[in-house]
Amino acid sequence: MISRTLALYKNAYSGLSPSTWWLSFVMLVNRSGTMVLPFMTIYLTSPSMGYSIGQAGFVMALFGLGAVTGAFLGGKLTDRIGFYPVQLITLLGGGVLFMVLGQMKSFPLICLFTYLLSLVNEAFRPANSTAIVAYSKDETRTRSYALNRLAINLGWAVGSAIGGFLASISYELLFWVDGATNITAALLLAYFLHPSKQVKPAKKATVADPSHSAYRDKIYLWFILLTVLFAACFFQLFTNLNAYYKIELHFNERFIGLIGALNGVMIAVIEMVLIFKLEKRRSNIFYISRGVFLVGIAYFMLNIFHINHVMALLMMVVMTMGEMFALPFMNSFWTSRSADHNRGQYAGLYTIAWSVAQTAGPFLAAQLAEHSGFNVLWWVLGGTSFATAIGFIWLKRYMENVSS
């Protein structure tokens, strides 16, 4: 039994190119410095800064606006100059801007450099997504994205833990360390992933017209709309759900942290093996729709059951299973719609979808919770997730009708 399990894990991680591993390591280093964003609101409202919650909210809205702008520009630049220089420039530029932002004290300058930092940081994502395609084979693509997600989740956990320690000493340290990890990631990228190592993937037969545009691809635009709806629901996992645990259920911070850690541990232990067993057996949309359904079920559980500590953990298990079914195959879907010359455009639009959801979803959900209560919010999120899952099933049938 143990030998079979070990063999399964070995097979799940085998076959990935060295460049894919290095790219994920670069992402791990980069994300291990993710500590400014989680503490930004606390920093701005601290006695040393003295800004109001409303002003902090405005700064975070600018962060969201910068993310959308950066995703668009990053996609355009990736198609024009290539994913390698865009990654290098944005990592270096983001590192410098983190350090500069930490020195800003006046509100207008904080707003300006927050927007610029977010723009540069998010321009990295389409280039990074395109690089994963270039460094992976078609049969290992979904697992390559899963490995990248694993690096992101581990990095986020490390960054949050270190960030909490540094914030207790000085908030300014967060900006220096976040900037330093960006620059370190850029140096690792330059050393281990030189442009000469780029591998051009084969053209995909799924794209009939090589001159097509992401903005004229009706199937892809429907996919993006459904992605925004799903992501807006999913992002409550990191925002209003924690507030509900604290305000309504009176869970302490340690247990809330444990619930979040369960999500990361499950992804680290299960996702690569799950993708290895499922990849190429059914269509990407098939797995996406099932994952979105599971997320809806998780939200409904909050109203159907009495949520104690055990049920909160069980809800997170269902939510994380939905995440592991949906997100890796969403990445595989958008890559299947793109070609070499416009992959940055497709990646940019996909990144924009998540940036819009990250900005609007938690804000709108918070307003609904404040005016109608958390129970109404969970019904709405569960219902929206179910409707989105049905939308993905419809999209699959629509694609089948178009291709027949």
For this structure, the CATH topology of the largest domain is Growth Hormone, Chain: A
Helical content (DSSP H or I, runs of 4+): over 70%
CATH superfamily label of the largest domain: MFS general substrate transporter like domains
The CATH architecture of the largest domain comes to Up-down Bundle
Order of helices and strands: HHHHHHHHHHHHHHH
Summarize the main sheet: none
Number of separate strands: 0
Content of β-strand: under 5%
The count of helical stretches stands at: 15
Tally of structural domains = 2
Cα separation of the termini: 45 Å
Structural shape: globular
GO molecular function, one term: transmembrane transporter activity
GO cellular component, one term: plasma membrane
Subcellular location: Cell membrane
Protein name: MFS transporter
Describe this structure as you would to a colleague.
- The chain has helices at residues 2-13, 18-31, 36-44, 53-81, 83-101, 107-135, 141-167, 171-192, 218-234, 240-247, 253-278, 284-304, 309-337, 343-372, 374-403.
- It is built from 15 helices and no strands.
- The longest helix is centred in the last third of the chain and has 30 residues, at 343-372.
- With 404 residues, it is an all-alpha fold.
- It is 80% helix and 0% strand.
- Residues 197-208 have low confidence and may be disordered.
- Helix 6 packs across helix 14 and helix 7 packs across helix 13.
- The chain has two domains: 15-194, Growth Hormone, Chain: A; 214-403, Up-down Bundle (Growth Hormone, Chain: A), CATH 1.20.1250.20.
- The chain crosses the membrane at residues 21-44, 56-74, 81-101, 107-124, 145-167, 173-193, 219-238, 258-278, 285-305, 311-334, 346-364, 376-395.
- It is a multi-pass membrane protein.
- Keywords: Cell membrane, Membrane, Transmembrane, Transmembrane helix, Transport.
- GO terms for molecular function: transmembrane transporter activity.
